[in-house]
C-alpha cells in the first residue's frame, strides 16, 4: 500500500471510487461537485494505491485561522471497505498536518451516518447531526478531532 499525492491522471480512478459509493455514501448530484473539485483544487489531495490500483482518495485543507483543518472528499472504493485503506488515508492526512501546519488544534469534517462510526472509532466526536441533509435518508454528521494545545500533537489514531 502506498499513499501519494494526487495527480491529474488519477481523476478517472477517483471518480470511479465515488461512483462505487453512490448512492449509499454520496448522491449522484454530488458527482459534478467532486469532479470540479478534482480539476480545480489547490489544497493537498492524496490517493492510496495497492498493487498499482487507486483504492482510496481524500484531501485536507487548513482554514485561514491556521488553528482548524478539515478533511475533504475522502473515500475508499466500495469493494475495498474494511481493509485498512481508510485508516491509512486518514493517517497520511494527519501526518501532512503535523508536518505542514503544526499549529492546527482541531480537524473537522462532515460525513454521513454511514461513515461517522469509522471516524468515531478513530477519535472524532459528532458535534451536530442534520437529518436528510444530503438526500432523504442520508444524514449529515459534523465531526471533529481535537489535537490538543497548539504545538502538541498526539500520535496518529
TrEMBL record:
<dbReference type="InterPro" id="IPR016181">
    <property type="entry name" value="Acyl_CoA_acyltransferase"/>
</dbReference>
<dbReference type="InterPro" id="IPR000182">
    <property type="entry name" value="GNAT_dom"/>
</dbReference>
<feature type="domain" description="N-acetyltransferase">
    <location>
        <begin position="1"/>
        <end position="148"/>
    </location>
</feature>
<protein>
    <submittedName>
        <fullName>N-acetylglutamate synthase-like GNAT family acetyltransferase</fullName>
    </submittedName>
</protein>
<dbReference type="Pfam" id="PF00583">
    <property type="entry name" value="Acetyltransf_1"/>
</dbReference>
Amino acid at each position: 500500500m502506498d499513499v501519494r499525492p494526487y495527480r491529474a491522471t488519477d481523476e478517472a480512478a477517483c471518480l470511479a471510487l465515488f461512483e462505487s459509493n453512490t448512492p449509499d455514501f454520496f448522491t449522484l448530484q454530488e458527482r459534478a461537485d467532486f469532479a470540479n473539485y478534482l480539476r480545480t483544487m489547490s489544497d493537498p489531495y492524496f490517493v492510496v494505491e495497492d498493487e498499482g490500483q487507486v483504492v482510496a482518495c481524500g484531501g485536507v485543507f487548513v482554514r485561514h485561522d491556521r488553528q482548524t483543518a478539515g478533511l475533504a472528499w475522502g473515500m475508499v472504493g466500495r469493494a475495498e471497505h474494511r481493509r485498512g485503506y481508510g485508516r491509512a488515508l486518514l493517517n497520511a492526512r494527519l501526518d501532512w498536518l503535523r508536518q505542514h501546519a503544526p499549529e492546527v488544534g482541531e480537524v473537522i469534517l462532515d460525513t454521513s451516518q454511514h461513515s461517522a462510526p469509522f471516524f468515531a472509532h478513530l477519535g472524532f466526536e459528532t458535534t451536530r447531526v442534520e437529518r436528510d441533509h444530503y438526500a432523504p435518508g442520508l444524514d449529515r454528521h459534523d465531526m471533529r478531532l481535537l489535537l490538543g494545545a497548539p504545538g502538541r500533537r498526539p500520535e496518529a489514531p
